[in-house]
Amino acid sequence: MEVIIQPTAEEASALAARIFGVLVRSKPAAVLGLATGSTPLGLYAELIRLHREEGLDFSKVTTFNLDEYLGLGPEHPASYHHFMWENLFRHINIRPENTNLPDGLARDVATSCAVYEERIRAAGGIDLQVVGIGSDGHIGFNEPGSSLASRTRIKTLTERTRADNAPFFGPAEEVPYHVITMGIGTILEAREVLLLGFGPRKAEALAAAIEGPVSPMVPASALHFHPRTRALLDEAAAVRLQRGNYYRHVFANKPVWQRV
């Protein structure tokens, strides 16, 4: 795992967007794995800017999202379908038929999850997957204790995760207890993974994932099994890392051909 520490979340998000941009320009029909929540908002804002100001073309891109709340349809304001269209898709030239999210209204959840996995395979697999990290170390909605070989499936959220996600729901609503999420095994099959982590609330989870042992109790630690994972952090999220100075040294002294 390569750890890249930037001064601010904005600078880390801009670097993540450059990584996406390099891929899309070199492979116009790239398959992108996307995440939701507050963490990737800076990345999406920068991708929109790259599209509008520098002509980054998403017309041939295919996307797959990590997760969706079970019981929420695409029109629900707290659904991840709605989130993606409001914060990225409607601002770029992506084809609606090329966007894929788990079906929160699926009647047969197991079959729907199997179909989602097959759609990823049929698209040729995910080239670049972005993930955030929960304050308890989860990625996607793979809560602590999740199998490191898990596939897309239904999961029950912990009360901690429900509390973390409460701000996205109106005052009269409750956060759902269940979600559909890509599994850790699914995430690890992407050709490249970007882990984004910003702010002091993520510092403990990031230290455990990056410098602690690989454990299902810290699902993000499974990314050590991936040969091309980059963790992009801001300084506030990096305060618990014991080898922070070394990570900064490595990034500052990269060979020219390794720089983005």
Describe the model.
- The model has no long low-confidence stretch (mean pLDDT 96).
- This protein is α/β, with parallel strands linked by helices and 260 residues long.
- 32% of the residues lie in helices and 16% in strands.
- It has helices spanning 9-26, 41-54, 80-87, 109-122, 159-165, 184-188, 203-211, 244-252, and strands spanning 2-6, 31-34, 62-65, 67-69, 99-100, 128-131, 153-156, 178-181, 193-197, 229-234.
- A 7-stranded parallel β-sheet has the order 1-10-9-6-2-3-5, with helices on both faces. A 3-stranded antiparallel β-sheet has the order 4-8-7.
- It has a single domain (2-254), classed as Rossmann fold.
- It is globular, with a radius of gyration of 17 Å.
Write the layout of secondary structure elements.
Layout: E1 2-6, H1 9-26, E2 31-34, H2 41-54, E3 62-65, E4 67-69, H3 80-87, E5 99-100, H4 109-122, E6 128-131, E7 153-156, H5 159-165, E8 178-181, H6 184-188, E9 193-197, H7 203-211, E10 229-234, H8 244-252
Parallel strand pairs: 1-10, 2-3, 2-6, 3-5, 6-9, 9-10
Antiparallel strand pairs: 4-8, 7-8
- Overall mean pLDDT: 96
Order of helices and strands: EHEHEEHEHEEHEHEHEH
**CATH class value:** Alpha Beta
CATH architecture type: 3-Layer(aba) Sandwich
- Please state the structural category: alpha/beta
From the spread of the alpha carbons, the general shape counts as globular
CATH topology: Rossmann fold
Radius of gyration: 17 Å
Q: Report helical residue fraction.
A: 25-40%
> Can you tell me the residue ranges where pLDDT is under 50 for at least 5 consecutive residues?
none
Order of strands, main sheet, comes to 1-10-9-6-2-3-5
Helical region count? 8
End-to-end C-alpha gap: 16 Å
